[in-house]
């Protein structure tokens, strides 16, 4: 059993943070809310999303699992006006999710959860350094780096957080001193990442007041942020090999 | 003789309600205003438009007929700023329409009315049921239905107005109870229509505070609405055959 | 030595007035500011731009010359938020321009000035007639003319300024009487110009409160306007041959 009411924009923002990496996902439903873990088709990025039951206006659910095409779900949610709620109700017999928006009632066919790629085991990395900054600032840096290159170095020095992008002709540096960061744990950290992935992630990240980046030397990047009070998102992005 | 002044946006909105279905039309001019009847190239939809002389700031005309390319006329009107008036004046000798917008003076070549497709005879159908709702609500329903299918069922039941769209995977229902409609005459009504046409029509309909839909069982849909006080628009849309 | 701070939008607007005609330019740097003269690849239009030192928040420079790819520079400036300043600093050894926007630091490779097309000698024409009008009004006229033709006649009569565009089917006239112009010197003037060039120019011109057009009979058009107090732009556009 699953029946819930939620602000359409809250749900859509949560879903968009995942759908930029993977289309079909398996939601775990429990009395605590909705959860999912997924990995992108190229195995470069992992995402975990938790929509706590507090994020809902109404939430009632037994333990369960549903397979959802996020692109279609996001498309349905776009029918809602700004500020409007959506009603969600699982029809267990027909394996369909009923989505009500105002006087519209949409029936979304679910995907057999066994047909969806297995959930990744998210590795429990101990990353030596981390920085916290406004989500909008990270997005701006990513957009600036894209003008120069396809890849970007993220790192932490004693002074603060830095980003470097080198193109064939031009280059770009970003330095945010520790005094201007919202939080920082200094440590050895410098890794190269694909801007394609960072750009997809940064659309959602830019909606967060603050985002924490955990890093090491040629280690994956862990990105942690919240949308509102009760939506928690984690990304883990594999590094690329830096060529001298 | 034809000489008139009208708000550019009023005239453009009126014209756009027709140009989504047909490009070249024959306007009948009389002291009461402008009128046209036209049918789309596929003979699926008819439109009749009346721009009453009251819709004009100034209007002086003898009986007459002019052939107009609506796409070019709409393009010229787009040169006007918001709230600006346009001057229209027929040059009978050269068969041109002079259109003044501010200090710009545009000369639009007219089309020989005999070269334009004959006006349709709009059938005088007695449709058993009708509902009245805000134009914006109809547009929203049409846009939602397009996410699911190419066709949509419109119907009237004892409870109110309904719409159903069935796609290969998902489906959508809309129900507006009679208490939430602006007006209703219950009756036997359920027909299938092409969403392509409804979408074209709904752009203009969405500008109307209210729109009336008249329907029957597998009968054409008649759509009636006003833009402002003095522009009257009627659509008649042929049904499609519903396949079980 | 060159070191300066300027509002990003001011610099971008100045650069866009040139980059619509030519990509790579040679800036002359002096204590008075930046200057350039350039001609478009087809030798139809010339542009001269002066950014006075007063346009800068901070300006310190020795005499010098730098070659710049305006498309890349404009792209970098687009990273700045509305109202934000950019820091410019020339690294003479590495032949690079360092551009700072907030915590971002961009390194733009310069072009060898000798590899850039020689500066044009801008002819000192004595044009018999001129009119002054709001920049936005010229842009509107140009956009209207494009709906009709690829070319446009600009002229001055005793009554004021006029524009004529003749298409295969329709035609357009604009007449602004001298009483509605911001300034006028009557004289013999009527020439045909390419709308492609006028359209490129009119984007920048529309940002100017007033623009002065100097004209003759089948003579080039000289366009003079300011952006803000300290940015001066001049265009010279060759006429086309009018075919009867």
UniProtKB/TrEMBL annotation, chains A, B, C:
<protein>
    <recommendedName>
        <fullName>DNA polymerase sliding clamp</fullName>
    </recommendedName>
</protein>
<keyword id="KW-0238">DNA-binding</keyword>
<dbReference type="GO" id="GO:0003677">
    <property type="term" value="F:DNA binding"/>
</dbReference>
<keyword id="KW-0235">DNA replication</keyword>
<dbReference type="InterPro" id="IPR022659">
    <property type="entry name" value="Pr_cel_nuc_antig_CS"/>
</dbReference>
<dbReference type="InterPro" id="IPR000730">
    <property type="entry name" value="Pr_cel_nuc_antig"/>
</dbReference>
<comment type="function">
    <text>Sliding clamp subunit that acts as a moving platform for DNA processing. Responsible for tethering the catalytic subunit of DNA polymerase and other proteins to DNA during high-speed replication.</text>
</comment>
<dbReference type="InterPro" id="IPR022648">
    <property type="entry name" value="Pr_cel_nuc_antig_N"/>
</dbReference>
<dbReference type="Pfam" id="PF02747">
    <property type="entry name" value="PCNA_C"/>
</dbReference>
<comment type="function">
    <text>Sliding clamp subunit. Responsible for tethering the catalytic subunit of DNA polymerase to DNA during high-speed replication.</text>
</comment>
<dbReference type="GO" id="GO:0030337">
    <property type="term" value="F:DNA polymerase processivity factor activity"/>
</dbReference>
<dbReference type="GO" id="GO:0006275">
    <property type="term" value="P:regulation of DNA replication"/>
</dbReference>
<dbReference type="GO" id="GO:0006272">
    <property type="term" value="P:leading strand elongation"/>
</dbReference>
<feature type="domain" description="Proliferating cell nuclear antigen PCNA C-terminal">
    <location>
        <begin position="122"/>
        <end position="239"/>
    </location>
</feature>
<dbReference type="InterPro" id="IPR046938">
    <property type="entry name" value="DNA_clamp_sf"/>
</dbReference>
<dbReference type="InterPro" id="IPR022649">
    <property type="entry name" value="Pr_cel_nuc_antig_C"/>
</dbReference>
<dbReference type="Pfam" id="PF00705">
    <property type="entry name" value="PCNA_N"/>
</dbReference>
<comment type="similarity">
    <text>Belongs to the PCNA family.</text>
</comment>
<feature type="domain" description="Proliferating cell nuclear antigen PCNA N-terminal">
    <location>
        <begin position="7"/>
        <end position="98"/>
    </location>
</feature>
<comment type="subunit">
    <text>Homotrimer. The subunits circularize to form a toroid; DNA passes through its center. Replication factor C (RFC) is required to load the toroid on the DNA.</text>
</comment>
